[in-house]
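Progress report, Aim 2. The chain analyzed during this reporting quarter is listed below.
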Amino acid sequence: MLNNLVRPTIEEMIAQRRWTDLRESLEDWAAPELADLLMDVEKTDRVLLFRALPRPLSTEVFSYLEFQQQDELLLELTDGETRSLLANLAPDDRTDLLGELPSQVVQRLLNLLSPADLREARRLLGYPEESVGRLMTPDYVAVRSEWTIQQALDHIRMHGRRSETINRIYVTDSAGRLIDDVDLQSFILSDPRETVDSIMDNAFVSVSVFDDREDAVRAIRRYDLVALPVVDSDGVLVGIVTVDDLLDVAEEEATEDFHRVGSVEPLRMGYWEATMWTLYRTRIGWLAGLVLVNLVSGGVLHMYEETLQSVIALAFFMPLIIATGGNAGTQSATIIIRAISTGDVDLGEWRRAVLRELGIGLFLGLTLGVLGMGLGMFRGGWELGLVVFLTLVSMLLVTNLLGMSLPFIFARFGIDPAVASGPLVTSVADIIGLLIYFSIATWLLM
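Predicted structure tokens for the chain:
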């Protein structure tokens, strides 16, 4: 709303080239607000507004833009402006940018980096795409355990400005291996003549450069940290990953899970930034696949066509059977998918989950089976009521187990459990429900 009110004034200043007035009017704005404003103004004015911002602020604003917006802005900047921007970006933000852009654009940007920044960028880009190594920054403060508190504080003052955060100070040995992390308050409140090891407790949490970034999200959430130290296979401290980057990861992973649960390919951009063709491509694959799966349901009906023609009343309960099985399976899958993604359920606990879901399925089946039996007896006598009862009990046992099992199976094979989505479970549950329903009906009524 604020952007809509000030945008005409901003665009007027740009048109009149009143750069001093423009800078003064924006100097109290936060970087995220300026990023929103930058995307709200006319496309032809964006690069002019960006150039009007002070250099440190423009770099921060750039880091808050979506990747597609960053790419569009880079196309408008000169090589000199791009070189300056890349040099001032934090290493982790620069790695994020280079990891998302097309390869030909990345090569052009790499050619603009200084030799030191180029080595750093290539090192970070060399880690697996979903790993912690891609998120970390080498900008941190580390001290030695044998130093005095005063020496450590002097070191923090000298190098702290370049660090991503100084809330926690990392302690390493002579080989660079991480041996502890200590909060800054402990340094400030301790006797300057004491040594660093006097305030160490040797209890710290770290992640490997090769760990999945979701592991880092869980760790930082569990231990309530602002940053996590990142070590290599030898335990050498190579960087840190901060909570702001991990919050972005958590949001991105949650968005991907929502998309997959809805049988949509994850969208790596905002809804309005995506073209209609992109939105079409994210949906058509799953829809086409589910159509093929649902054709099996038609095959089941064809198999039991004689039974259906003999007992027309069976058709009345088909929507109930199909909907109940799909809903139960989706409920079970949703709970398990979320539990696996948060680490609440481990893959080794699938046997416990099987027993639990079988019990829940039995109780649900008995409850709904009694209700269904009453409807069946009303529509077609006690035999039809018994068919509906046995179908609901059997089906809820099986579909509950199906909804629980698919996320475990996918996770076991390294596939995102969210792929075991509602539409997939529902489609398979439809087939199972119809098979059970008509098998029992044929057995009892024919």
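The mean pLDDT is 85. The longest strand covers residues 178-183. These observations will guide the mutagenesis work planned for the next reporting period.
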